[in-house]
Specification:
Layout lengths: L25 H38 L3 H61 L2 H26 L9 H21 L25 H16 L1
Helix pairs in contact: 1-2
Family: Belongs to the SNF7 family.
Subcellular location: Endosome
Main location: other
């Protein structure tokens, strides 16, 4: 049996009711839906051309007075228009599915990103917890203290007598004390002759004063005697 497109109508094949175990990726499904929509659009375009052809045929038959033929053409026109309406409904259904699937896929991608971010944050928190941070800080302080001790050890001078320095200082102080005691207990040394002149035994002669000074001195002695 032939359909309206002139092709042999194939018998419907039975589809197994066994569910498939494979799942279709959302993007692949969206592509399939968009492809199906384009196919329906092409089919709709073909049907509308059929409608126009039936209208032209009906007019031609009416012009020839063939009302029966014109009526039959109009019936085919109605049938094609009904088919076009069905195609419109199919397109709307496919478009709705595609939009909903795109939205669901976007939501799934957003959810997956949020879940991945949450899991990453959990992993970071587990790897870098407050207790681990405290442990790291304690270890860092210990390492710094050990490094300081190593630096101090390296900076020490290499001298075999440094260990006996306190003993040597004590011995030096003992020597100084012994020298001081010996100096204090030693007899006094005789005074050396420095060549200085000897002190005269008699009274030194008085220098002669000038006449005026002698007179004033006498007056002063007289005043003192009268008191």
């Amino acid at each position: 049996m032939f359909n309206f497109f002139g092709k042999k109508k194939t018998e419907p094949t039975t589809v197994s009711s066994t569910p498939t175990t494979t799942t279709t990726d959302s993007q692949t499904t969206i592509v399939k839906l968009r492809t199906a929509i384009k196919t329906q659009e092409k089919r709709e375009e073909h049907i509308l051309k059929k409608v126009e052809a039936q209208v032209a045929e009906a007019k031609a038959k009416m012009a020839k007075g063939d009302k029966k033929g014109a009526l039959f053409a109009m019936k085919r026109k109605k049938m094609y228009e009904a088919e076009a309406d069905k195609i419109q409904n199919v397109k709307m259904t496919l478009e709705t599915q595609a939009i909903n699937l795109e939205s669901a896929a976007q939501n799934a991608a957003t959810f997956d990103a949020m879940r991945s971010g949450t899991n990453t944050m959990k992993k970071i928190r587990n790897d870098v917890g407050i207790e681990k941070v405290d442990d790291i800080m304690d270890e860092m302080k210990e390492e710094m203290e050990m490094a300081e001790e190593v630096n101090n050890a390296i900076a020490q001078p290499v001298d075999g007598l440094m260990a006996d320095e306190d003993e040597l200082l004590a011995e030096l102080e003992g020597l100084e004390t012994a020298d001081l005691e010996a100096e204090l207990l030693a007899p006094p040394k005789p005074v050396e002759d420095l060549g200085l002149p000897s002190v005269p035994a008699s009274k030194l002669p008085q220098p002669k004063l000038a006449n005026d000074e002698a007179d004033e001195l006498k007056k002063l002695e007289a005043e003192l005697a009268g008191l």
